[in-house]
Structure formats: C-alpha cells, structure tokens
Specification:
With 246 residues, this protein is of the alpha+beta class. It contains six helices and seven strands, in the order αβαααββαββββα.
C-alpha cells in the first residue's frame, strides 16, 4: 500500500501519519502470542500486569512479529515516502510494551528525539543514531491515557532548521524541551493494526499508562540506505532524500 497524496501532505506538514486496518486478525493474534511467553506477568491475572516487564522483550526477530512489518502493507507504505528500495530492512521489530502503572492520573509525557545517549537506552555516548522513518504499530486496542505513542506535530521541521546551524550532539539525551517551541501533543490511539509512521526528527514519547491494559506495541526505525553518507547533511530542502515527497 502506497500512501496517497493527502496522507503524504499530512506527513510533510505534521511529521507523522496514522494508518488503520494494516494487519489481518491472524497477524495480530500471532504477534500477541509471540510476545506473551517473554513477559513476567500472568496472562490470566491482570493484577500481575501492573508495573510488570520487560518493556522490551527480546523476541523482535520472531517470524510472527517480522511478518507484521513485511507481510503487511506497512513497510511498503513507509517506502512510498522515501522511495522503493531506499530504506533498510531491520531483522528485528519491537516489541515495546507499556504496562499499567496503577495510577489514574494521566499527564503529558516528557519529550525527546531518538538516537541520543542516556545511561539506560543502549546508545553509545558520543554518537547519534539519526534515522528516516519510525514505525509504531499497535497489536492491542489503544485507548486514550493508556500509554499511547505521543507525537508533537510539526517538530520535524524545527529539527531540520535547528540542525542546519547546531551540532547534532548539542541536544543532550535528545531533550529539546528548552530548544523547540512545542505544540500540543497528540496521543495516537486506535484498534489493533493502527500504525503511526513518523519522521525521525519528530519529537515524541510514550505516555503514562493509566488503564488496566498492557500496551502491546511494535516499534522500529528505518534508515535511508545511504545513511552513513548523509548522516550529517541537513540540506535547505528538508525533503531532498525523500523521493516520495513532492
């Protein structure tokens, strides 16, 4: 499935686009079944889900999870933004879970850009992991205040301008709260198979899960195949390497 002109325009202006009905029921169920054995929680006892883990179970190379990216319309949709054959093909896809907190008071989450070192995220200090298209996919129904993936629309354009004159490592830990003018955030919600494609320069975060459900979510980051050559390029036209964007 290629994105249509309206979807591409929305992505260009907002830095993300939300798609629905991307997976079959069988793909959704197979994905969930692949994740559950790796969780420290009793599937039949929701009281054990509160504060459980792991957040990132080590099963992203399971064929059922990779199928949600490659045997669906999702990867093709991402390609339609950058150009066919221009994106990398990760060998692992998510998962990224968000467990109930047991707290009923929701608040907007912190903000960040991906690819920057923090003491706990596995990124090497002194490096930066710029990428082109992020993919966030829900395998469960995502209700408001349930720990949904959250974006700050239009911040990808601020990133494009900021890094023309500032070093990429000038943003410590990816925290841009004191650097960007942040709009109101948007928490992405929807039924299983809801996908958010987002620009790598878009400010985002996971939000607090104030519902009793686990957020079953898949996340990966797709790079341009020329990434090593263009990592530090921020041309005047921010869409110079996006063949699918006019």
């Amino acid at each position: 499935m290629s994105l249509d002109a309206e979807q591409k325009t929305f992505f260009k202006e907002n830095g993300y686009v939300v798609l629905h009905d991307t997976l079959t029921e069988d793909q959704i169920q197979a994905g969930v079944e692949a994740i559950w054995p790796h969780l420290d929680a009793d599937r039949d006892d929701p009281s054990t889900w509160i504060g459980a883990g792991p957040i990132s179970p080590n099963c992203g190379d399971d064929p059922a999870l990779l199928a949600t990216l490659y045997d669906s319309s999702v990867y093709e949709a991402a390609e339609s933004l950058v150009g066919k054959g221009k994106l990398t093909r990760p060998t692992s896809f998510g998962p990224k879970l968000n467990f109930p907190t047991g707290d009923s008071e929701w608040a907007a989450p912190g903000v960040h850009l991906d690819g920057y070192y923090t003491p706990t995220n596995g990124v090497a200090e002194g490096t930066v992991g710029r990428f082109f298209v992020g993919v966030t996919m829900y395998l469960s129904h995502q209700h408001p205040t349930g720990g949904g993936f959250t974006v700050w629309p239009g911040t990808h354009l601020q990133s494009a301008e900021y890094f023309k004159t500032n070093a990429m490592l000038s943003v410590k830990g990816g925290n841009v709260r004191d650097v960007y003018e942040l709009p109101e955030p948007v928490e992405v919600t929807g039924p299983p198979g809801t996908v958010c494609l987002w620009h790598g320069g878009t400010v985002h975060s996971a939000s607090k899960n104030c519902r009793p459900d686990i957020r079953f979510c898949m996340i990966t980051r797709l790079n341009h195949i020329q990434n090593s050559d263009i990592l530090f390029e921020f041309p005047d036209d921010p869409w110079a390497y996006w063949d699918g964007i006019d």
